[in-house]
Design a protein that fits this description.
It is a single chain. The chain has 1 helix and no strands. The longest helix is centred in the middle third of the chain and has 117 residues. It is rod-shaped. The chain is mainly α.
């Protein structure tokens, strides 16, 4: 580059007129007002987002409460089912014991009945044998 090719940097004017300063000041004020409006819009959007998050949090709290209730109900039902299962096992055991007892009682009755029957048969045979011996 040569010295002629170099562009001189323009120097700012030494003096700014009152009108130019007022225009600049007005432009700066407008820019700040626009920035303030944008901040107000952003703030409103954040408030709407906060409201939406609040609604979502409320829904999540209600869902969480329902889940807690369901979990408590499940625990109650699970406990109830365990008690029912235990009762069923106890009833089954008692039923088995009762059946065993009834079987033992029936077996004893049959044995007694069989003994009586055999005793009757033997008594009858003895009576017949006695009659046969005495009639001869």
């Amino acid at each position: 580059m040569t010295a002629n090719d170099a562009r001189p940097i323009p120097s700012p004017p030494d003096r700014v007129t009152q009108k130019e300063f007022q225009e600049f000041k007005t432009e700066v004020k407008q820019n700040f007002k626009q920035i303030d409006r944008q901040f107000v819009r952003i703030d409103q959007q954040f408030k709407l987002i906060d409201i939406q998050f609040g609604k979502v949090n409320n829904r999540l709290d209600r869902i969480d409460d329902r889940l807690d209730v369901m979990e408590q109900n499940f625990a109650v039902h699970e406990k109830s089912f365990k008690m029912m299962e235990k009762n069923f096992q106890t009833m089954e055991k008692n039923s088995d014991l009762r059946l065993q007892s009834q079987n033992e009682l029936l077996t004893a009755r049959i044995e007694r009945s069989n003994r009586r029957q055999w005793a009757w048969y033997i008594a009858t045979l003895i009576a017949i044998a006695t009659l046969m011996v005495t009639t001869r």
